[in-house]
Amino acid sequence: MEINGVEIEDTFAEAFPIKIGRVLITAVNEKWARVAAQEATGFGTSVIMCPAEGGIERVASPDETPDGRPGVYIQICTFGYKSLEEQLLERLGQCVLTAPTTAMFNGLPDAEKQFDTGFKLKFFADGTESETEVGGRKAYKIPMMEGDFITEHSMGGVKGVAGGNFFIFGDCQMSALNAAEAAVEAIEKVEGSITPFPGGIVASGSKPGANKYTFLKATANEKFCPSIRDQIEDTQIPEGVGAVYEIVINGVSEEAISSAMSAGIKASVKVPGIKKISAGNYGGNLGPYKFNLHDLV
Amino acid sequence: MEINGVEIEDTFAEAFPIKIGRVLITAVNEKWARVAAQEATGFGTSVIMCPAEGGIERVASPDETPDGRPGVYIQICTFGYKSLEEQLLERLGQCVLTAPTTAMFNGLPDAEKQFDTGFKLKFFADGTESETEVGGRKAYKIPMMEGDFITEHSMGGVKGVAGGNFFIFGDCQMSALNAAEAAVEAIEKVEGSITPFPGGIVASGSKPGANKYTFLKATANEKFCPSIRDQIEDTQIPEGVGAVYEIVINGVSEEAISSAMSAGIKASVKVPGIKKISAGNYGGNLGPYKFNLHDLV
Amino acid sequence: MEINGVEIEDTFAEAFPIKIGRVLITAVNEKWARVAAQEATGFGTSVIMCPAEGGIERVASPDETPDGRPGVYIQICTFGYKSLEEQLLERLGQCVLTAPTTAMFNGLPDAEKQFDTGFKLKFFADGTESETEVGGRKAYKIPMMEGDFITEHSMGGVKGVAGGNFFIFGDCQMSALNAAEAAVEAIEKVEGSITPFPGGIVASGSKPGANKYTFLKATANEKFCPSIRDQIEDTQIPEGVGAVYEIVINGVSEEAISSAMSAGIKASVKVPGIKKISAGNYGGNLGPYKFNLHDLV
Amino acid sequence: MEINGVEIEDTFAEAFPIKIGRVLITAVNEKWARVAAQEATGFGTSVIMCPAEGGIERVASPDETPDGRPGVYIQICTFGYKSLEEQLLERLGQCVLTAPTTAMFNGLPDAEKQFDTGFKLKFFADGTESETEVGGRKAYKIPMMEGDFITEHSMGGVKGVAGGNFFIFGDCQMSALNAAEAAVEAIEKVEGSITPFPGGIVASGSKPGANKYTFLKATANEKFCPSIRDQIEDTQIPEGVGAVYEIVINGVSEEAISSAMSAGIKASVKVPGIKKISAGNYGGNLGPYKFNLHDLV
């Protein structure tokens, strides 16, 4: 199967369950909503050694935000609701409450699971806080040096999906990189998903465990490493491929992952020099979710 | 004392010791060095609830980097060397090794304290790694999906200073915000210092402890909160001041802090609408370092 | 009448007819579509002394572009179709054909007026060009150093509207500036309109003609100049207003102007420190189009 | 000769004389200095069909600007001083005076040729203007809607050099593009030169005149067009080259061109996938200046 002359391999991405908190950060302009969002979701690429995975989902237009200002949705992801609650409190308290002109609202107001993160953060006001309502949402006004910070009472969480992915094979590194950038740009317009790695891109796609250094939980996936192609018997790097980037996707539902993978793949194959699209799976041992590339595009 | 018609209060910033690791991240262009740097220093505003403080120090021109590519210096800060070593391993391993086209080099090659972070990260290659030399630095080549990742063997750390600061009083919130942005822009050109808060700016300047909610380590500094000015007997908000932003600065030395405060103050008073520059201190109880504003400008 | 506590003056913007060409520029990513668009619409703020007015209208998603790549719509505006045809040829030939990875398509394929700009530009290929079809559009393939440049055969033009506008009164300059930025950000999401001034904002709102220097076609509108408020008898600057910015809007139809003014005003009043929204008119002498602010919001 | 494993061809760039005006634009922050600069130098890639060539030279730090604010230097280039004076008046009057928070200063205060552009623009104030001095420069204060616009009295011009250039051959289009981007990023840090094409890059390197369509002044240089390599007998495209980008450089002196070419070439060969660096010359018929690549690097 081909799109735009690029082979789409007949394979699937394997993904696993995760808990996701979704928050809407608004600010005086999109720039400052983004800055707060980046700080709050930083050090958040992989739960292997980060306290959470996180990323910017999409921009929210003033029409759809409770306070009528521009905003961005972020997601914070951990394996359990307890750690998610902690991470929300720490990341929102340290990186959004502290950021200029921001406010924060529940990104999943209808979810069953609700955390009272905003209620807890109001204590920062040391007794000067007050309850308020913004766009129908129960919120608090926290007097600060810059003026009043607004936070909604609750932030919602859901059972989501982590590790959706696809691989972009380029004839050279810059082709693969630019295609990966195009994919991330496209996915940022899709509802419900994030690409938690730096700039949305994984340069170091890994396998679970190790062949040699067995004390490690994950190591480089040597079958997909072009520079050692000649040394690896079962290399998956076709001739003429100079680099591979992986896009890893988390989302609030299987549909969110599917939509993101589809948008990302379609965008990446438009970049000149792309040879193949594949995906990462581990014989079905990593997780229960499967996303067949041929079903997506 | 006045600069550009703006009152510089006769006061001082109070700061405290911290341990700082400094790393040079290079990439195919400044954009990708920055993206990796932001991810690696994210969730890093204050050690109160973040695992480390961190930020981008300055851009490094290709002339001064071991591999001749554009780069940025970052700093990671924690109270002890043990936690610093852990944070360096986790943040560089998860956020720089994984980022497209990056390499990483020791930002303090002459420091007494050296961590073998690069040596430890090479195990990710699962046996396919090799030793190399880049610009006279002992380094490792780690084959990955995108090609080879280069990391220097060691990353250096020093005893530095945290909590350098100044306050910008604006006639309205946007004046104060734009002045704070100008200050951060100027400080990013100074050697040796970072501004760890989101976009370099603190919207929520705090006091140690609390008046009412004594279970908290830090709460809003109500004396500097304009929206409750009429309720606070000893308010420090002069009439006509609508907002205050704080710039917090960490640096590898007292000189780095002084230079950054000086550059930041000079830049901020150029923005129309700035009424006063002050600084935060707590009667000398917070830390041993003092930076008199009048000595700096 | 007030929105968000900001007075909307009971007045109208006065606008006049202009001819508009609309072009869709696509590229390997949004960045390069934007770079080409900025170059092509630069030196294009006002037909008073620029050869044309121009600006970026909005981003086009890959779904809606003939080649499935990201793009931006631009508009080029002059008083007559003859000068419009010349400006399209010069600006597209010098600033889009020359830009990396771009292609260009007709932004008004259904308009009555069509220019064969693409047909003329194909001669650059000096005999090596060929006809092709992209997304159902008749186009040419022009071999170049970077590869093949694609241009559609025709570019459409319409009778549009120029000089739609509103004024943002801020308590200080930075409030007004940030509100103007928010307005431009919002208008860029609206179909059919551009804000041709630098970054979309006019710092120097003018009146037709002059009181003193009558050799000039337009001079500063002294009634709206805060720094000389005390010298101007019939000043329109209320007490407490420190700065005024004007947003000037051109569009393909009256509806496009209305939508843009509405979105821009709603966004700007959300910024703290905004005191009033007004608009520019000259007793109905400048042009036949009138946009009442109270009808818009 | 090779740098970083990339062949530097033993050839030269041929360049020709031009007149250059240089202006320093300052603003409340670098963003707004850049926005005004882009507007003022837009529609300015080549004098073949643009009214002038123009571009941003480099960022100016607050330390070196007369008003202590951040700024950027721009250059405007035409063949004669008369057209240069007109272009300065039109471009500065329409694109800098109109831009938020900007001021403008003479970028060549010691040049023999001086234009009284600032003096002429002060008439916009319609009698409310006044003379002032900023950082030792004679200037005017022009009351406007946003506040006071400051312009220095004179703007200087010199005999400079246009058409300095080099070619970047990449194994694929994205390698060549990213190398060209790296070159432009490096050249922007060099004193005295600009890269007038969109984003600094030429996708459509041309030859003077035409083989077939002799009514054109310049057409595609088919010898350097990869997609028709097989049809062109004396093609200059080596096997394995997928795309070529040209960087065109104007500067205030031969030294400025040499420094820029050197910085740009060194930066571009660091990008993976670059095969060769060459340059454009036309048997010495185009102009008197020659820049040998081997002398530069």
How would you sum up this structure, described in words?
The structure is a homotetramer of 297-residue chains. By secondary structure, chain A is α+β, with helices and mostly antiparallel strands. The radius of gyration of chain A is 20 Å and the shape is elongated. In chain A, a hairpin with a 2-residue loop joins strand 1 and strand 2. The first copy, chain A, has a 15-stranded mixed sheet that branches. A two-stranded antiparallel ribbon of chain A has the order 13-14. In chain A, helix 1 crosses helix 2 and helix 4 packs across helix 5. Chain A has 2 domains: 150 residues, Alpha-Beta Plaits (2-Layer Sandwich), CATH 3.30.70; 141 residues, Alpha-Beta Plaits (2-Layer Sandwich). Chain A starts with a strand and ends with a helix. Chains in contact: A-B, A-C, A-D, B-C, B-D, C-D. At the C-D interface, helix 1, helix 2, strand 9, strand 10 and helix 4 of C face helix 1, helix 2, strand 9, strand 10 and helix 4 of D. Chains A, B, C, D: Keywords: Acyltransferase, Cytoplasm, Methanogenesis, One-carbon metabolism, Transferase. Chains A, B, C, D: Pathway: One-carbon metabolism; methanogenesis from CO(2); 5,10-methenyl-5,6,7,8-tetrahydromethanopterin from CO(2): step 2/3. Chains A, B, C, D: GO terms for molecular function: formylmethanofuran-tetrahydromethanopterin N-formyltransferase activity. Chains A, B, C, D: One of its GO terms (biological process) is one-carbon metabolic process.
